[in-house]
Amino acid sequence: TPRVFSGIQPSGRLTLGNYLGALKRFVDIQNEGKYECVYCLVDLHAITVWQEPNKLRDNTRELAAFFIAAGIDPEKSILFNQSQVPAHAQLAWIFNTVARMGWMGRMTQWKDKAGKNSENASLGLFAYPALMAADILLYHATHVPVGDDQKQHLELTRDVAAKFNHDYGVDFFPITEPVIKGPATRVMSLRDGTKKMSKSDPSDMSRINMSDDADTLAQKFRKARTDPEPLPGTYAELKDRPSARNLVDIFAALSERSHDDVIAEVEGMQWGTFKPLLADLAVEKLSPISGEMKRLMADPAEIDRILGRGAERADAIASPILQKTYDLVGMVSSR
Ligand code: AQP
């Protein structure tokens, strides 16, 4: 069976963007049953920017609980944290020698996160996409579901695979397909429809956190930026209305309906009517997840056990692929 790989960083505060752009899609793909699914809590990626150690531990367990609460079945899918399968860091080193400085320097995430002070950014932040290529290619994954913001990193993963195959004259790593699908591949800030909803935005009102209670959800949607026009008769008319379109996208994704379906129902509605509907829908869909997360978080030992079992299963796939890579590169296998 073809394999899917994807990951989320345990860097704290999960947003509706992470859920609709990534996790909800992971669950759908798992339930389709067409792929073997490998889902990873990428703790090695998280530390490319500073993480308080105790916070990182909590965030990793919380993220595991989020996966399970949202519908990832750790029996069906492989769920683990990246640091526990050493082959990720090992293959990343090989890819550090394959990828070029120029490729990394062109990554918009690097430019955004390092900002003007790139001299002070960690070397790991610069090399982030090489580790991501390793995550994916270590499982010979052919499909990678992600939000729209990860498109460029996935192109780099394809470049790494192609260059490795070319340099060593082999056809070993697959050229991975990004899977950027669904009604909300890019959830935008509630304060500014031209900016991605992000956990690092200084304004909490800009994002929906998975941990927000019903009152907070209602308040955030009520105050969400829109425009003075009512909802239009076709989705295409939202093209130049990013804030308005964002709320319709969120509505469609949460209700698992198409944009056209949603528009047909809400055509001509005023925002004062639509926003409470959206808030109710969000509470209905998100509160069971946050409730289940809390329940799971009460037993961290059980979470660690699940992750440990996942790491063993991941390692069984990854180790032979790493060994084969070493062999292709010319490392002497001495033990
Ligand atoms: N706003 C979003 N819309 C759609 N998908 C999103 N993803 C993140 N934000 C959105 C997707 O979530 C997955 C995990 O991403 P990550 O672990 O790299 O998280 P992130 O991108 O670091 O999250 P933030 O909130 O954007 O953090 P900062 O503020 O630090 O940059 C990926 O598939 C991603 O596409």
Automatic annotation (TrEMBL):
Gene Ontology, cellular component aspect: cytosol
Assembly and interaction partners: Homodimer.
Role of this protein: Catalyzes the attachment of tryptophan to tRNA(Trp).
Intervals of motif 'HIGH' region: 10-18
Superkingdom field: Bacteria
CDD domains tied to this protein: TrpRS_core
Catalytic activity: tRNA(Trp) + L-tryptophan + ATP = L-tryptophyl-tRNA(Trp) + AMP + diphosphate + H(+)
Subcellular location: Cytoplasm
InterPro entries hit by this protein: aa-tRNA-synth_I_CS, aa-tRNA-synth_Ic, Rossmann-like_a/b/a_fold, Trp-tRNA-ligase, Trp-tRNA-ligase_bac-type, Trp-tRNA_synthetase
GO terms, biological process: tryptophanyl-tRNA aminoacylation
Species of provenance: Boseongicola aestuarii
PANTHER family listed in its UniProt record: TRYPTOPHAN--TRNA LIGASE, MITOCHONDRIAL
Molecular function in Gene Ontology: ATP binding; tryptophan-tRNA ligase activity
UniProt main location, coarse: cytoplasm
UniProt keyword terms in alphabetical order: Aminoacyl-tRNA synthetase, ATP-binding, Cytoplasm, Ligase, Nucleotide-binding, Protein biosynthesis
Protein name according to UniProt: Tryptophan--tRNA ligase
Sites where the protein binds ATP: Q9, P10, S11, G17, N18, G147, D148, D149, V187, K196, M197, S198, K199, S200
Binding residues annotated for L-tryptophan, in chain numbering: D135
Motif ('KMSKS' region): 196-200
Gene behind this protein: trpS
Pfam families (alphabetical): tRNA-synt_1b (PF00579)
Record-listed E.C. numbers: 6.1.1.2
